[in-house]
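Slide 14.
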Amino acid sequence: MNLALLLVLLAACVVMMLIERMGAPTTLLLTFRGDIKRETLFLAQYGQAVCTAIAAALIWQFDPPRRSYVIPLIAAVTAASVGAFLLKRLLGRVRPRREYAGRFLGPTLRHANWRESFPSSHSACAVALTVALTHIYPQATATFWTLALTTAVLRYVLDAHWPSDVIGGIALGYGVAWLVIRAFGV
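Slide 15: predicted structure.
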């Protein structure tokens, strides 16, 4: 794990929160149609459950010597998802373009998507999957990071999250994935 990178991400997240809180225009109003919309929706799912299951299945089927990496890979993405879920419920940040947008409303046990903005779980899971996959297949690092960062950027571009939510999700996914990989000793 690159601790300096993690600290830079956390600092960037805090800086973006301050900029957002000051009222700087940080959200977009973009609409996509046709193939562009479908392709962005596909890319935005990298790191989610189905994508992670497919990655695990491909490793299992095509790379028997690396089958021992499947459980840590799934555990890394699951840990990032659970971590994001808990933070979302604990902090209760309102998504862009909603009443009270950007405010932290505090803890709740009830699901309310409009107040589950921080951190971006899509970004966290995409980065967790990428950290795990680059650990297994370092030769594909550029491809995996491109997919993860595309997913993260799309969360912002599609107005689902504030920039700080995305950066926070990236930091969460990165840190959690490395902790899981180290815990499994792979």
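Speaker note: The mean pLDDT is 90.
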